[in-house]
Specification:
Radius of gyration: 21 Å
Strand content: 15-25%
Oligomer: single chain
Distance between the termini: 36 Å
Shape: globular
Structural class: alpha/beta
């Protein structure tokens, strides 16, 4: 497992626990008690660290390589998932995955950004950074859901849209803007969950929903801390200062009215207990869909518009 710099003391204890578990002394010494004591120390230190994370540390946790990714959530939460590919105009973009399935028995369309879990899959999915064809595929799937009255679930986890010249040449900005427009226009319930990093327009292209959920240690911002620091301070070394100034944590965003609910993560972050956080996320999505489904289509769209028009009016 990837070790974060502020977790060094915890990692040392976990290493000792693993060493004790691999001891072979023929059963003459009972090491269970010692392992129990060390595990208690690990749990206490993790609780102490993760209840006091700085914004910069939350950025590290949100980007942790072992956090469950979009495909993990789809695998556990969506039954009979059938992926749909292509934007019907240019190409397939594997940075965005989506398709038809059933969420707790109800038919739905699910769309999300997949970063990949190793070198090969990260290259395959372009690290979750979509090109215009990815956003146009998302638009196609949202329009499909609207046509057939299917709820939409989106899972956000991207550093941002792909910034390459070829993406810009094919209309990256227009594709993102059009995706936001489609999110705001569809007359079916749309629930978004930010499961890791929600970066810039690449994230909001899938996140203009009726309910916006966010994992406790996820982040959501108009620009990355490194990008902000390079603009304001001309140095990425000021990224921790930028992270604090951007108010990118779930707690800040709930206070500002940008998101609707924080999903608590297991002690030590989602990467330490993927099964638990996926189950909690499923429960939160189900509750959000129940709320949104209580409105008729016209009222749902009107409320969604009011929600986003009202953002920015709440102070810190």
């Amino acid at each position: 497992m990837q070790t974060l710099d502020f977790e060094k003391s915890v990692t040392e204890l976990e290493t000792k626990i693993e060493e004790l578990r691999h001891l072979s002394d023929g059963g003459r010494v009972n090491i269970a008690a010692e392992i129990g004591k060390l595990q208690d120390k690990v749990d206490k230190q993790l609780h102490h660290l993760y209840t006091r994370l700085t914004p910069a540390q939350k950025v590290q946790v949100a980007r942790h390589a072992d956090r469950p990714h979009c495909l993990d959530y789809i695998r556990e939460l969506i039954e009979d998932f059938t992926p749909l590919a292509g934007d019907r105009a240019f190409a397939e973009d594997l940075a965005i995955v989506g398709g038809l399935g059933r969420f707790r028995g109800a038919p739905c369309v699910v769309i999300g950004q997949e970063r990949g879990f190793d070198t090969e899959s990260r290259i395959k999915h372009n690290f979750g950074m979509a090109k215009p064809e990815g956003y146009r595929k998302a638009q196609r799937l949202m329009n499909l859901a609207d046509r057939f009255g299917l709820t939409i679930i989106t899972l956000v986890d991207t550093a941002g849209a792909f910034p390459g010249v070829d993406a810009e040449a094919r209309g990256q900005a227009e594709a993102i803007a059009r995706s936001i427009e489609v999110c705001l226009r569809v007359s079916v319930p749309l629930v978004t969950c930010i499961i890791g990093e929600g970066g810039s327009g690449g994230a909001i292209a899938l996140a203009a929903g009726d309910r916006i959920l966010m994992l406790e240690h996820a982040i959501y911002s108009v620009i990355s801390p490194e990008g902000c620091a390079s603009i304001l301070w001309r140095s990425a070394a000021n990224a921790p200062d930028a992270a604090a100034a951007l108010h990118l944590t779930a707690q800040d965003l709930l206070q500002l009215g940008i998101i609707d609910r924080i999903i608590p993560e297991p002690v030590g972050g989602a990467h330490r207990n993927p099964e638990q956080i996926i189950a909690r996320t499923g429960d939160a999505i189900a509750a959000a869909l129940a709320e949104a489904s209580s409105l008729d289509p016209a009222a749902l769209v009107a409320a969604r518009h009011e929600k986003f028009l009202g953002m920015g009016q709440k102070g810190l």
